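#onboarding

Welcome to the new folks! Below is a worked example of what a typical request in this channel looks like: someone posts a single protein sequence, and someone else replies with the predicted structure as tokens. Don't worry about understanding the tokens yet, we'll cover that in week two.

Example request:
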Amino acid sequence: MSNKFNELPNKTILITGGAGFVGSSLAIFFKEKYPPYRVIAFDNLKRRGSELNLPRLKAAGIEFFHGDIRNPEDFDVLSNIDVIIEASAEPSVLAGLDGTPNYVVNTNLAGTINCLNLAVKKQADFIFLSTSRVYPIENIEQINFEEKATRFDISQNQTLRGITKEGINEDFALDGYRSLYGATKLSSELLIAEYTQFYGLNTVINRCGVLTGAWQMGKVDQGVVVLWMAKHFWNQNLGYFGYGGTGKQVRDILHIKDLFGLIDWQIHHITQVNGQTFNVGGGREVSVSLCELTEYCRQISGNKIAISSVSATRQADIRVYITDNSKISKASNWKPQITVNQILEEIYFWIKENENTLKNILK
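Example response:
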């Protein structure tokens, strides 16, 4: 399949989950950088707060289609498409663990299959936003670590393949359980490989770590960076759960505009990375523990809030995850640019400027 982005002056980009945090942000960034492009946001508006993005999309000149990727007939209204960015998902790691797995399975797996079939029909390139949660929980918990003053850190000496001081790379073992969310994403990855081989699609898979930035409607199980700042902004309580209740669990975080920079490059260089899978995150330089996150939020908001401590570790939690971006950086020269402090300052001022609108969702 040819790379249409090198052949056509104007492009049509379809972004599924286009009214969510990731999808709407990518849509707006693409339209801002490439005004002649036709950018389509496709979303079922299920997640609370996604409706707030509709005026932003309209103001940016982005077309919105209300539809559900679980229903392939909802795609019938779409005409020519050059690239599909599959950003739709039930993103909670806890989704379905209460015995109701239908939505997470039908959205994250069956929905992706529908999007792949659409890509075949439209001869469109396909960028898939997967997750670091495809890596099994038990394997991650076997990573050798050091306990430091404010965080758990990855040790220099490791016995598992796919893990170095820099973090987890694409060779990390995939055998084991990972959550229904992670399992559906990994299943989608396997099918994408089949479509790439047998239908000739141009595809790229990005296993994203923690994504964040303004306009994310943060909750405990997804969007914790925004949630943490929101709790500080409104002087509400928080808690450190698990691993002794010290708040030393670590994640790397990636600003959505840094992700856009990468996807922008991938779309326009698709033949160079066709069929490949990449770990994509903030990396060691943009990583933070919960107690470090608390200190950032205290300094930026000026508020010190009560934080409880619960020693017991919750289901599906992990001690430390840091992305090794070496493979994608070597392929594209991409690396995250936006620091933890810059991310949190942006979120704080976004909440402050939109307090009345956001308080019923984030407070």
